[in-house]
Amino acid sequence: MADIPSYKQRKVITIGVVSELTGLSERQIRYYEERKLIFPERAPKGNRKYSFADVEQLIDIANKREEGVQTYEIRQDMLRAERKKEKRMRRDLLRGEINARFGIQKE
Hints:
A two-stranded antiparallel sheet has the order 1-2. β1 (about 40) and β2 form a beta hairpin. The protein has two domains: about 1-70, Orthogonal Bundle (Multidrug-efflux Transporter Regulator, Chain: A, Domain 2); about 70-105. It contains four helices and two strands. The chain has helices spanning about 15-20, 25-35, 50-65, 70-100; strands spanning about 40, 50. GO terms for molecular function: DNA binding; DNA-binding transcription factor activity.
């Protein structure tokens, strides 16, 4: 069975609606995509599609920019968080494999 993304992860919102929801201009949203801070999907005709999670991310980015944080710093923070999450997932996977190998049950 294929993983069905939650409503927050489904990319269904157009850039115009995202602009209205976030208060950002379409140009700002495209700029954040260029800086690899947001990753919309493309519809068959090339239109960008965003998720509610993307909207939340854009609001977070806008708030950080208002505080004077540069886009480079925001991207570095995102990469650090991603690496930390991957490390945690590898650790949990390894722990699960060890527990299964030695028959350790979680209580």
